[in-house]
Each structure stands twice: as C-alpha cells, then as structure tokens.
Specification:
The protein has 484 residues and is α+β, with helices and mostly antiparallel strands. 26% of the residues lie in helices and 23% in strands. The chain is built from 12 helices and 24 strands. It has helices at residues 105-110, 140-146, 175-183, 189-198, 216-225, 261-276, 289-299, 311-325, 371-386, 392-395, 460-475, 478-483; strands spanning 5-8, 18-24, 31-32, 37-42, 47-51, 56-61, 67-70, 74-79, 89-90, 93-94, 132-133, 233-235, 241-243, 279-287, 331-334, 339-342, 348-350, 352-354, 357-359, 362-363, 400-403, 423-427, 431-437, 440-454. Strands 14, 17, 20, 21, 22, 23 and 24 form a 7-stranded mixed sheet that branches. Strands 5-4-2-7-11 form a 5-stranded antiparallel sheet, with no helix packed on it. Strand 23 and strand 24 form a beta hairpin. The chain starts with a strand and ends with a helix.
Amino acid sequence: MAEPKEFRLPDVGEGLTEADIVSWHVKPGDQVEDGQVIVEIETAKAVVELPCPWTGTVARLLAQEGQTVDVGVPIIAIDVAGEAPAPELRGGAVTARFHEEKADSAERAGDPAAPGRQSVLVGYGVKASATTRRPRKTPPEVAAAATRPETAEVPAAPVEPPVMSPVPPDAPPSPAARAAITIRALAKPPVRKLAKDLGISLAGLAGSGPGGSITKDDVQRAAAGGGQVRSAEFPAGNGERAAAPAAAISPGGEERIPIRGVRKHMAAAMVASAFAAPHVTEFLQIDATETMAALRRVRELPEFADLRVSPLLFVARALLVAVRRHPLINSSWDEAAQEIVVKHYVNLGIAVAAERGLIVPNIKNAHEMSLPELASGLQALTETGRAGKATPADLAGGTITITNVGVFGVDAGTPILTPGETAILAFGQVKDAPWVVDGQLAVRRTCTLSLSFDHRVVDGELGSAVLRDVGSMLEDPVRMLAWS
C-alpha cells in the first residue's frame, strides 16, 4: 500500500510565510473528499478555510490546534488508494508541483474544487523548518525538555514531519504532556467553542479527560462556579461587543492577551504606516440634514428593498465622486522607483473592527458601481468582515479607505493610513447640534469629517479640496449628480 500523501501548508497569497492552526474539521480515520474543508488557519490577515486536495482517509494530523506552522510544512497525511507517495521537501524546495499550472491565489481560494484539477490554493514557500508553537515564556526546565538534537536543520537533508503519537486513554500525563498542557490547553473544537461562548478561559482549567484534556463538563462546572476569567471584549464593527482571545489574570491584577494573527499584522502595519508616511489630518464639520432626508427617501425605493442603507453609502459615493475630480488622492508612493502611482480605478476599503482585530476589506472597482450595487457591496463587505470570513483577496489591492467611527459614538479622529494608500476618510457620528441657517439659529443634523493624507503626495490645497468636495456633497446630495 502506498504511503499516505502529505498535504503541506500552502501560501494562500500575499507572501504568507506561516499560519496558525485554528481548528481541525476532521480526525484520523475520517473519510474526506477532494474539495472538502478540512482545517481553518489564521494568517496575518484573515481566517482561511483550506480544502483537501484528494479523496481518501485521514491517516494522521501532523499539526495541533494552536501551533504556528511554516508554509511548505506537512499538516495532514491522507491515505489515497492507488496514489504514489507525495513529493518531499529537499533543500528547502519542493521537487514536484501539486498542479501543472500556476494560478492566482485569489482565484484558487475562491474555487477550491474546480473540475479537472486538485484543490490546491497556491504554491509552497521555500521554508523547510518544522512546525513551531508561538513563543511563550516557559520555565527553563520545560524549554530544555522540549529541545531535541534531531530538530536541528541539516542542509540538503530531507525534512521529516513531526508525528503526534496518540495518548492511551488510561495513561497519566507525562512530563512532556504536562508541559504541552501548560503551553496550550488540550481541548477539542466543540469544547473550545463552548468555552468561548461562555467566556471561560481554558488556560485556567484542569482537564479531567484523557491525557489531561478539557471536557465540556469541565467548562460547564467552571461556568457554574463563577471562578473563571471571562474573555476580554473589543468593539465589533457594528457597535456590539465581540469576544477577544481569553487570557488569565495574574494575582497582581495584570492580564496578558497573546498578540497573533490579524491583530499582530494590524499592529505592525499601523506602526509602519505611521512612521513611513508623513500624516496630515484635516477636519470639517458639516450640516448633513439633507443627506439624512435623502437617505430616508432612498430606503423607500424598490431597488433598495432588501439592502441595509446607512449614511455610509452616501459618504462612500461622495468620496468616489471626489476621487474622480481629484485623481491624485487615489494613489500610492513607490519608494523604490521614486514614483507616485496614480490609480484610475477605486478599490474602496472599509475599516472593520472584527473579533480578531482591525481589517480593511475593499470593494473592487467601486467607481463603476451604481448606487444600489454600492449599497450591496458595502453590506456584503461589512457582514463578511465582522464574521471573520474576509479572504486575502478581499483584503488586497485597496486604493483609498473610509473608517466609520460614528458607529462608536465618536465625533472625529486622526485615522492612520492603510499601508500603500495615500488617504483615509473618517466619518463621525451624525447628531443634533445648533447651526446657523440663513442667519437664524436652528437645530440641524451635523457630523465631522476627518481626512488624513500622505503629505509626500498630497499638499494642503489638494487635501482641503477633496475634503471640501465630500462635505459639499453631503450637505447637498444633488451635487453628486452634478459632479458625477
């Protein structure tokens, strides 16, 4: 019988070098089909579902939930009847390709089971190191016990994947197992979901299951006892609260939340953007009374019957019109070539505060859309982003961004540019305020716009013109028709 074929972690796009195993959808002995989703991974940008490239039986899982795995490293072995063994990694390169034709990563992610070929996302990287856990502070004796001479890399030698040996149900946990439990609590996906729903930290539980694993009963007892740490909370994009990764509170009253995946990428990108591009932010308070009236009328139109229409739709349309009038605002700075790249298309990014961190998916070719199409695109984008289902393709290629801070009850802010873009518009809350109309004091629906831009590309005159145009169209929506 042929050896099981090993499915190696693919690069799902955007130069991925590693990913975290979030949850397995299969276990050893399960029957799987070509194109069936077998695992969820978290990259630096999003949670991605990986399909199985073959039909067969799961022989073994080569990576545990919570592990960080390098691209090109085997994560699962599949018994495929009548198939030859999978190609090996030698000298950091793959000696055979999964597919004879190289396709775009976004297309592969969107069509995992196209007829006539295996469901492979993209190619594999050149890394040939073994799977690793995220760095954690561990006692010296645990770190020493975890180090093995055979893990050292030998140039040009075949890389053998780590094999997880099952623990007998009646065997007590070994010292190595206790160390693993200390680093990452052992629990099956349903147990982890239950703990997440109840706000229970698995790190603080002693498991009563086989090998010290945590069971549903353990989680339910902890919830009933009320002695466990509840998950921290972060704002979601719709103003609700979303659970963040649970973390234990130390006796001194400090809480440590692991920085990983999307949140880690977000932090690095914001630091890079803040210190690479000279930011300038301008503010404009406007009377949005006419926009709010137009919004109510639009909601009554049959074309918008099944769509959620919010003020963001008018802000997005106004920005698209302003970009057409001032193309330089929709550009990027190419440091290597010392050129300004003006984009004559608009992939409109919308900042979304998702559970795993801030992401900016974008609506492709938003400049070509009608108002109902734009409303549909905004609704689909925000729902996908908040659910954590945005793909790398959704997040790549943005040209200009809107961040709606008004949903959090905030008037204004100084938004940081999305890396690679020249401008970002913040839209504050719409509220009643005193306003002078025709020399008389009146109560109007007002809001504040904030435009941050890269001062290497955009000077004060251009930035002011763009902001003033957006404000004028929101004060009088008819201008959108005149300027479109």
